[in-house]
Amino acid sequence: MKKKSRGARLENAKKGFLYSFVRSPKGMFGFCLFSLIVLAIFLAPLFFKLDAEQVYFITNKAPSKEHILGLDTAFQDCFSKLIVGGRVSLLVGLGTSLLTMLIGIPLGLAAGFYQGKVGAAVNRAADLFLSFPMIVLLLLLVAVFQRVSAGLVVVALGILSWPGTAKILYSTVITVMNSEYVEAARAMGKSNARIMFTDVFLNSITPILVSLPFRISMSVMMETSLAFLGVGIATSWGRQIYLATQMNVMVNQMWMWLPAAVCLVAVIVSVNCLGEGIRDSYDPKIARR
Amino acid sequence: MLKFITKRILVSAVLFLILTFVLFLLLSFLPTYADSDIAKYVMEYGMISPEHKLEIYAKYGLDQPLGARYFIWLGTLFDGTWSHTYQNTATAVTEVIGAKLAPTLSLTVSALVAAILIAVPLGMFAAMRPGGIADNIASLLTFVGVSIPGFIVAIFLVFVFAAKLQFLPSMVSAASKYPYAVQMILPVTCVALTMIGPVVKQVRGSMLDVMNAEYIKTARSKGISETRVIFRHVFRNSAIPVVAQIGLTMPMLVGGSVVVEQIFTINGLGRALVNAVNAPADVPVIMGIVTIQVIVVLAINLALDLVYSALDPRVVY
Q: How far does A127 lie from chain B, in Å, by closest CA?
């Protein structure tokens, strides 16, 4: 059965990327769920009056007509916090991935193209950043800059996760450099810069683009983990889920943390499914070998 | 071989120096214990004399310029103290770290062992019958490991096993009525879950790769039993990427359990680091923990290269 579906996938892939993607259940599920979440988060402010800062002086914290998800331990509206937190998490995830590519792509390309000393330097630098459990360095960076803003978290995460992108690109560029069309381009007398961009870069960018969704979900996970530890963004979903570490809140006041936890898992699962759908449709050979 | 090892150790040493110096530089921007001591003194007496200020700086060794401080710190790595903590200038950093190392290692090492014991057989079965039960369990575990953040897994486990069913403790503490091993079940499960996924995936993937190789067909056609083919020929030849994958999870042994330590109140390195980072920063403690981290990572990378050549005679340095 598995074999058949794989064959079908191969057939689909031959008919083009979109044709195949629309027919992959995983990809479409991820796409729909993710679109739904994004729409909800960015359209909700148009329909509801949201204020995540406002403190309400009422004793009943449970969900009610005025506060559909209730109030949290600081007497602030959970629904507003959920929407605002979602926006922060998604934007940080996206921003981080873009910054990662911005740093990782030039370095990886240069390393693979020139190899030798440049390659060694980039690879050693990547090792330096990779040889560190990410969360440790982040704790330090946030402590150094004292103030935590979404921008700082993006910068910190981006600086720390570029080695992944650079190494993926480096390995593809190296194989592309040995290909005959690069040799042909050289024989035609093309300049180094032109070979680098038109021949090498465009032929080795696919793995990076395909891994983009996974990078986004990874960044969202890192961001919320940081917030959970109390060193990240205060409005993040991670901070809401942190309330569950109090036994009483965890069991008796689930409205304070469960929606954020469910949303977070939904975002990561949908982005990962979307990513797998894209990867499978783009190249069924690398899917589930 | 010897030349290779010396070269690697030299490169590692340079990396170590760069890394620790940059860190030292960054940490020097943080408000120090000296600053808060001076602030406290000013609060109490209204003013402070320059001599007394200097005295306070000298107490923490902050009267020296940055470069000198770095070299003094490097020197203390060799006298067994690794400098003294700011919180109590009579306590050596190694004492503090020594006390925190055992809880962290007992958490992460048992998690790693559990993860390997589950992941390797599971990956093998998954590879032997793609689409079978083992394969589905493997997919599920990988999915959980990749798609659900560690702290949510931890909260979910505590919610189910500690709050609702009430047969496992939600915290690790000396005063608990449960034995230590029982207290560690939930935290170890959390850490192991994050490690299992990638290893299963790698075992399955590389075994499938090897199974399609010509020499496996040859082995089968010689009439060797299937078990022998799997263990002697397939498993051994697919071990390298698996070892690499396990090696990649090694840095987590020291620093990867920060979140889990926080949730289950385990007094390990992760919690010590979070505490030391919170202002005012206890720079020597931070430097000490990072030093352990970096040494472990660099040593593991070196060890991995040696293991490769043991597993695959073709790899020569």
A: 9
